Amino acid sequence: MAVTTNDSALEGCDSSGEIGTDGKDAAPSPGGLGTRHLQILLMFLGMMLGYSLRVSMSVAIVAMVDKSTANPNMKEYDWNQEIQGLLLSSFFWGYAITQVPSGYLARVWSARKVLALGLFFCGLVNAVIPVAGDYADWGAVCACRVIMGLCQGCLLPCIHTLLSSWVPPSERARLGTFAYAGAPAGMVIAMPISGLLAASALGWPSIFYIFGALGMCWGLAFFYYGADSPAVHSSISQEEKLYIEASLGTSSSEKENGNQEKLKIPWVKILTSLPMWALIITHCCQNWGYWILVTKIPLFMKSVLGFDIKDNGFYSALPYLAMWMLSIPISWLSDFALKKGATKGFARKVSNSIAFLGPAAALISLCFVDADNKSLAVFILVLAVAFNAGSVCGFQINHIDLSPNFAGPMMSITNCMASIVAILAPILASVVVYDEENVSLWHIIFYISAGIYVVGDAVFVLFGQGEVQPWNDPDVVPEKHKVISDKP
After folding, report:
1. How far, in Å, CA of 380 to CA of 389, rounded?
2. What is the average per-residue pLDDT within 62-85?
3. pLDDT at residue 396 greater than cutoff 60
4. Which one of 70, 72, 110, 460 has the lowest number of neighbouring Cβ atoms within 10 Å?
5. How far is 420 from 424, CA to CA, in rounded Å?
6. Mean per-residue pLDDT, 155-176
7. Are 64 and 79 in contact (CB under 8 A)?
8. 8-38 pLDDT, tens digit each
9. Low-confidence winner among 122-136, 302-316, 406-420 (lowest mean pLDDT)
């Protein structure tokens, strides 16, 4: 069903990427936990394992190139900083390619099948990495990471698609937020566990075996217990199915027969929209800073702060725990501001400024901290990552503000371009930090990243908008179409 510009479900910080017919339920909500909650739990676990598979290499590579930091009985590779940068960024080579195709497959075939197969094979390839390194060195490991990215490009498009079919508008903020909380949760879990495994008798290869096996298990579980919609779920209660369908304005026959109204995507208008380009630039800038922090924090902690692999994994996870916790009050405050009369544009820009200017200030501050002051340095790194939580209610949710009907394709475009930046960031950082123990070289990266954060926020504040764009309703008669003003 097409969404018109008077859709009350636009209010608040809704992270699902899709919008229902209105913000109110057309049927009473069944009490207690239901099938939709199991689906959300599965999505949370999928996000958690997807990000665990993605970031565990950041910790593992520290032990792979310096066995003295972990189990000294394991194999060590002579990989310089440029090779390490390639290995850390190669995941995104494949990840950027499959964003749009996987979103299309999720829509026309099955989001459940695409996501289950994607994470299953991502886990399988991850488990092959130690063997690939033994027989063909870094080139084979790089190839494995590219294939993992190809497999995992389906993660966000499929989660968006599934949430739009399973979550009623009145529950979308809390259930959607829970599903996406799997991303920082995956980092919080993967980093310390990776450090412990690397230092254990099993050594760093166990990181790839264990997380790979978990990814495959989740893929099989979701293939059998997941469902594309309530209409095709085998054991959902009739009461809960009717509640979800009434809330979303769909029916079982529409879902089963594929007769839902589909609007033609106005690609030209989207790609020539100034607010859309503000989103693209902002997303790219955020990805630069965020993935510099993700991929380089473990190395910085080892080389400059002198943490061993166990402490490295633990302290590297702290920023994502803080980010996870900070996302709750920021989301609530953003929603509260809207209820008190703030415009969507104002609320998004304030949240985005927290997410960009906070890390920028933290990274600049880090350049003035003595390396011997480990506690203060770790505290600042925690803040640098934690402030990124504001991006969810900043530019990320702004796709829905601009076009509830085409938020999914818009996210595919911005995330695809931002993934290219995620490829370049670790590589360029490795070129700059050619001597990982030289603190002044790290400062250069921190200053560059802080500057990119500031530019990204300035673009969003100056050119971003909070109003639904005219091309959101391509089939609406012009005289009946009204654009919601972003001004009070």
Report:
1. 15
2. 84
3. yes
4. 72
5. 7
6. 74
7. yes
8. 333 334 433 333 334 444 455 666 678 888 9
9. 302-316
Please tell me what DSSP assigns to residue 29. Answer: P
User: DSSP character for 145?
Assistant: H
Amino acid symbol at 360: A
Position 181 pLDDT exceeds 60:
yes
Condensed to tens digits (0 to 9), the pLDDT of residues 201-223 reads 899 999 999 999 999 999 999 99
Evaluate if residue 274 carries a pLDDT over 80. Answer: yes
DSSP summary character for residue 471: G
3-state secondary structure of 285: helix
Residue 428 and residue 474: Cα distance in Å, rounded? 42
Q: Which uninterrupted H or E stretch holds 310?
A: helix 309-339
**C-alpha distances in angstroms, 159 versus 1, 179, 289?**
19, 8, 24
Rounded to whole angstroms, the Cα distance separating 100 from 91 reads 16
| Token representation of residue 393 | 């209610």
Own/partner pairs for 371-380, CB < 8 Å, 24+ apart?
A: 371/304, 371/305, 371/439, 374/305, 374/306, 374/307, 377/305, 378/301, 378/305, 378/315, 378/318
| CA neighbor of 479 nearest in space, from 488, 470, 487 | 470
As a whole number of angstroms, the distance between CA 295 and CA 443 comes to 16
The DSSP string of 312-370 is HHHHHHHHHHHHHHHHHHHHHHHHHHHHTT--HHHHHHHHHHHHHHHHHHHHHHHTTS-
Q: Residue 349: left (phi > 0), alpha (psi -120 to 50), or beta?
A: alpha
